[in-house]
């Protein structure tokens, strides 16, 4: 898929074909894309907790108030950060956001739908998600991944008034 097509066609998908199987090898492709994201001082402060287990997705839904699309998603990927890996900088949120976006675009390229569910810095969801997955790192986002059961159209968001050529 052309990169501009993937960018323009990506939309948040909140309804998936429940029970659809997505192989672990495809999730590894998404993580490969994520780990190619740029990173401040190349510190690569991320970790990814992935599961297709109902029990795990249910725990995340209970922890995050706006993640109900996990009910039909095939996988949940929790993108987490290790802030201590950037002792002199505080760019880990940006690094992880770049990793999340790579996941969304790569998933689109594979024909899957996704939804970004923000965690950090919102509380109590960040701590609740952390408890749900039992990690030491900081949950930045949950990404729902599934086979789309809705097809929100590309929006054409380009707004020339936001572009300043100086
Ligand atoms: C930082 C961030 C946090 C978000 N958190 C949520 C969320 O918790 N739940 C949700 O359903 N969508 C969430 N979204 C998705 C946005 O609602 C969505 O991207 C926006 O409405 C634009 O729609 P589009 O993605 O279809 O273009 C989040 C997006 C971002 C970038």
How would you characterize the overall build of this protein?
There is one protein chain. This protein is α+β, with helices and mostly antiparallel strands and 166 residues long. It has a single domain (3-150), classed as NADH Oxidase (3-Layer(aba) Sandwich), CATH 3.40.109.10. 33% of the residues lie in helices and 17% in strands. It is globular and about 45 Å long. The mean pLDDT is 97. Bound molecules: flavin mononucleotide. Flavin mononucleotide (FMN) binds at residues 11-12, 14, 66, 115-118, 152.
Small-molecule components bound:
flavin mononucleotide
Largest sheet, spatial ordering of strands? 1-2-4-3
Write down the overall mean pLDDT: 97
Strand content: 15-25%
Spans of 5+ residues with little confidence (pLDDT < 50)? none
Helix-strand pattern, N to C?
HHEHEHEHE
- Specify the CATH class: Alpha Beta
As a percent range, the share of helical residues equals: 25-40%
- The overall number of domains is 1
**The CATH H-level homologous superfamily:** NADH Oxidase
Total number of β-strand segments? Answer: 4
CATH topological fold name: NADH Oxidase
* Radius of gyration from the alpha-carbon trace, in angstroms: 16 Å
**Helix tally?**
5
């Amino acid at each position: 898929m052309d990169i501009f097509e993937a960018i323009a066609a990506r939309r948040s998908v909140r309804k998936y074909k429940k029970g659809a199987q997505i192989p672990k090898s495809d999730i590894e492709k998404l993580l490969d894309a994520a780990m190619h994201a740029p990173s401040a001082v190349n510190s690569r402060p991320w970790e990814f907790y992935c599961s297709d287990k109902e029990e795990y997705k249910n725990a995340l839904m209970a922890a995050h108030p706006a993640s109900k699309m996990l009910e039909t998603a095939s996988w949940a990927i929790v993108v987490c950060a290790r802030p201590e890996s950037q002792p002199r900088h505080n760019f880990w949120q940006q690094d992880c956001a770049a990793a999340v976006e790579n996941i969304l675009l790569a998933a689109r390229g594979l024909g899957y739908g996704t939804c970004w569910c923000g965690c950090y810095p919102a509380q109590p969801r960040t701590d609740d998600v952390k408890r749900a997955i039992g990690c030491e790192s900081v949950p930045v986002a949950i990404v729902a991944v599934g086979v789309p059961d809705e097809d929100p159209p590309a929006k054409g968001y380009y707004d020339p008034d936001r572009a300043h050529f100086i």
